[in-house]
From TrEMBL, chain B:
This is Oligopeptide ABC transporter permease. Keywords: Cell membrane, Membrane, Peptide transport, Protein transport, Transmembrane, Transmembrane helix, Transport. Residues 137-326 form the ABC transmembrane type-1 domain. It comes from Planomicrobium okeanokoites (Planococcus okeanokoites). It comes from the Bacteria. It is a multi-pass membrane protein. It is found in: Cell membrane. Its main location: membrane.
Length: 311, 339
């Protein structure tokens, strides 16, 4: 186990170093200058600005400065959007709303999805089962931004139940974005739990439990549900990816001051250091989630051989 | 029982002699794997309906811009922001050209003196939405199919070589894949789009740059599973070359998985294209895809919801159809389920 975790962490570091290197050089060959209204500056003024941000150093020096700062958690400074603010601070200050809607969406989605999948499996081939399958297919198929704009138009604009956009009304502002983000985990969990539950319900130990006279609800919760739940951990990784991808557009649609909205904005104004910082932040987040999921799975289900080909 | 038997008239039964030649005859026609899979797929109503629906969408994507009297890019400013109006159906109270103006419901076609009918309405520049939506569908589908085909090609070759030759080659190739899959797809796609000139080609390259790893893993797993089986050993003993073993013996077995995987890559690619267009990294005007149309429509959501609703609806239909076809194929191609 320890060896496996060690190996995974080494891979993680290599991957991150590659991503950071890749992003750095990519940003250097990108068209457009990070200095606002660079065209209007005289060559002398430009040189002063470039010197200030270390843009006049030779490329290898810039690279090592950047990587060295990265190890210490310093992602550089924003050049044109926040006028010299630390990228790390910018990201941290915007983490609250993103984390809140992401967490709420994930929680709402998985809980509802588990319930839906469980009911569908227990009432297999009834209308409940079919409608839950339809919900799951729709949830996986309809992109979050389509769903988010539908919610915004119907519940926000037409019915006025929730704020249409912005982050001003505390919890109420977070309701619609959370629902929009919840659709993907909901659908994934419902499909997954249904398949797992049906498989478990057909296994020998359930027949044994029935033969011993366990009641229906006891079998469903104590025996079937618990065992169906374990493999759900494996889809937590893809769910987190889905939430993060979704957050970029959902935050944009609901004008939430989060990391996703910030990222899209900095792409528009080519604020390189923010783009690099956010990219690395996203990568660390996703890679950590997947690592934790894999380790958790190995601990909870000892039948899984971690050293095997499983990823 | 015996008494009843004797009461039966003579000649009710013929004695059938045992024929040793007949015993070896195969009474049912032999069903190949693919015929069997097709039979199972036909039973899946959702998948068949989706196939039909998808066929319809493809036909409309090809014919739509042609049968519409308006070109997707021609602007008629006086006809801007018209809601959909379809003859015959308009009598039902929907698609009748009525829209809100200043909070009141009015027939905008009458108000603006528009004689023609725009089936899906027009956008803010007076462009016909009907031809634009189908043109956009064309572009979106092309991007998705091209990306899926490239993913398949690279993935199959890479995974096939890695799995078949094994050993050190496999080791090195798998380490590369492990690192590539560690990089979040979202990050790679966005970064690549940024350094390339925006356009169809850029999106396809960005989607395929790490997209093939999933396919290569699946193919490698399957090849590993089959290459140690007896039929491969038999072929090798009979002197078959590596190429022949791969093409004639392994490929047919791996094909099912490749098809299933591709069927799930396509909706993924459609989603990513729309996603990129929505955050402004997709196609540039006047090119239109479903994603850019949704993005344009979103800006007018409050007053002209149809500009968003129609492309969003078509996009959702394509995604649902593909997921259902993929599910159906996965069940149909599963060799464990045999009729």
């Amino acid at each position: 186990m320890a060896r496996y975790i060690g190996k995974r962490i080494i891979y993680m570091v290599i991957t991150l170093a590659l991503i950071a290197t890749f992003t750095f050089f990519l940003m250097k060959i990108l068209p457009g200058s990070p200095i606002a209204s660079a065209d209007k500056l005289s060559p002398e003024q430009r040189a002063v600005v470039e010197a200030r941000y270390g843009l006049d150093d030779p490329l290898p020096v810039q690279y090592f400065n950047y990587m060295f700062g990265l190890v210490q958690g310093d992602l550089g400074i924003s050049i044109n959007q926040f006028k010299g603010a630390d990228v790390t601070d910018v990201i941290l200050s915007r983490m609250g709303p993103s984390a809140q809607i992401g967490f709420q969406g994930m929680l709402l989605g998985t809980v509802l999805g588990i319930l839906l999948g469980m009911i569908a499996a227990l009432r297999q081939n009834t209308w409940i089962d079919y409608s839950s399958t339809v919900v799951a297919i729709i949830g996986i198929s309809i992109p979050s931004f389509v769903f988010a704009s539908m919610l915004q138009y119907s519940l926000g604009l037409k019915l006025g139940w929730f704020p249409v956009a912005l982050w001003k009304d505390g919890f109420m502002s977070s309701v619609l974005p959370s629902i929009a983000l919840a659709m993907f985990p909901l659908a994934t969990a419902a499909r997954f739990i249904r398949t797992e539950m049906i498989e478990v319900l057909g296994s020998d130990y359930i027949t044994l439990a029935k033969a011993k006279g366990a009641s229906g609800s006891e079998i469903a919760f104590k025996h079937a549900f618990r065992n169906a739940l374990i493999p759900l951990i494996t889809v937590l990784g893809p769910m987190a990816v889905g939430i993060l991808t979704g957050s970029l557009v959902v935050e944009q649609i609901f004008a939430i001051p989060g990391i996703g909205e910030q990222f899209v904005k900095s792409i528009m104004v080519s604020d390189f250091s923010i783009i690099m910082g956010t990219t690395i932040f996203f990568s660390v987040f996703l890679i950590l989630v997947i690592l934790i999921v894999d380790i958790m799975y190995g601990i909870i289900d000892p039948r899984i051989r971690l050293s095997g080909g499983k990823s | 029982m015996t008494q009843n038997y004797e009461k039966l008239p003579q000649g009710s039964f013929d004695r059938i002699p045992r024929d040793t030649q007949q015993a070896e005859r195969i009474s049912k026609p032999s069903v190949s794997f693919w015929q069997d899979a097709w039979r199972r797929l036909k039973k899946n109503k959702g998948a068949i309906f989706s196939l039909f629906l998808f066929g319809l969408i493809v036909i409309m994507a090809l014919l739509g811009p042609v049968i519409s009297p308006y070109s997707p890019n021609s602007q008629t400013i006086t006809h801007a922001n018209l809601p959909p109006k379809i003859p015959v159906i308009e009598n039902l109270g929907i698609f009748d050209g009525v829209g809100t103006l200043g909070g009141k419901e009015v027939d905008l076609y009458e108000m603006k003196n528009v004689e023609q009918n725009y089936w899906f309405g027009t956008d803010g520049l007076g462009r016909d939405m009907f031809s634009r939506v189908w043109k956009g569908t064309q572009v979106s589908l092309f991007i998705a199919f091209a990306a899926a085909a490239i993913d398949m090609l690279i993935g199959v070759i890479y995974g096939g070589i890695s799995g078949y030759f094994g050993g050190r080659i496999d080791d090195v190739m798998q380490r590369i894949v492990e690192i590539l899959t560690g990089i979040p797809n979202l990050v790679v796609v966005i970064l690549f789009i940024m350094i390339m000139d925006p356009g169809i080609l850029a999106i396809i390259i960005a989607l395929t740059i790490t997209g093939w790893t999933g396919m290569s893993r699946v193919v490698r797993g399957q090849v590993l599973k089959y290459k140690t089986q007896e039929f491969v050993l038999a072929a090798r003993t009979l002197g078959a070359t590596d190429g022949r073993i791969i093409w004639k013996h392994l490929m047919p077995n791996v094909l099912g998985v490749i098809i299933i995987n591709t069927m799930f890559t396509i909706p993924g690619a459609i989603f990513f294209e729309a996603f990129l267009s929505f955050i402004g990294l997709g196609l540039q005007a006047p090119d239109a895809s479903l994603g850019t149309l949704i993005n344009d429509g979103y800006k007018l959501i409050q007053y002209q919801p149809h500009i968003l609703a129609i492309p969003a609806f078509v996009l959702s239909l394509i995604m649902i159809a593909f997921n259902l076809i993929g599910d159906g194929l996965r069940d149909a191609l599963d060799p464990k389920m045999k009729d």
